Amino acid sequence: MVKIEDLKRINLLRDFPDHLFEIIANEAQLNIFGAGTQLIAVTEPVNTFFMLIMGQVALKRELTSEIDIILDNLQSGSSFGSSSMIEGSKATYAATCQETCEIITLSGIRMQMLFKQNHELAYRMMFGVAQQYKKHLDTRAQMIMKTLDENPELKDSIKDIENLTLMI
Amino acid sequence: MVEKDILKKIVFLKDVPDSILEKVGAIAQLKTFDEESILFRQGQEEAFLYMIVSGKVFLNCRSVQGKSLTLDEVSEGRTFGVSALLGESSSTFTAVCAQPSSFITISGQQMRLLFEADFQTGYTLMLKLAELFRSRMEMHTRQFLHSLAMLPEVI
Does B148 contact A131 at a Cβ distance shorter than 8 Å? Predict the structure, then answer.
């Protein structure tokens, strides 16, 4: 059980109605994780949805045995592990606390069960997840476009530039 | 109004139950546009979702430096303008008909009203969209890491 005021600090839940906050608050847990704690491991199933109240979490991928690439540094209000709410998902990144973090967690399996009973909860969560993915994709597309603008010779070596358009 | 048999030809709506297709069809329209018709411009808010029934569309973008780039040629069965479903953000490209083309168009606002009235329909379609976006994100990440691995000077 967590406080509804804490849930209201999470960007993905920004427009949720109060009756859904109550359901989520009953399912959620507030946890403190120390610096260096690995919350998600690459290729492992993602079982938990994480909502960051305080602290910083890095999303990383290993490039070589000596080099990790930080894909994103998440701050308070961010959420991750949304794959846990979609069946059959495995992590494509590792999530590690960069400092002591206060994080609200939700069981992905429990949320999937609730989605079958409460379609409003299911719709609003998935709407937020889709918006979150799109925001990341738009940011990446803008970065790629800027790079192509500065280095037009790279265009010929990109075989799947169409993926920037979000055509489905 | 668009019949579900036509909606079933659209990749995004593949495997969607008939009951949902009927609701989507009730707010959808079939429209035909001439060659070189501009459906929407880069920077404009995307108000409609476009599903190509026949024809072809170029998705172009103009860079900050003014260079024009064709990002994609989209043909029948494909959908674009998905930002309209999420009720946010302006388009990152301009959509121009490469030949006379017919589309199923759905107002993003009407679609969101449908979702608010029928959460199960909303969930079914948002889950599909989230899954598609997620797999696109994963692909981008793999490509990004592959590119970095190929360019040791970056490291």
Answer: no
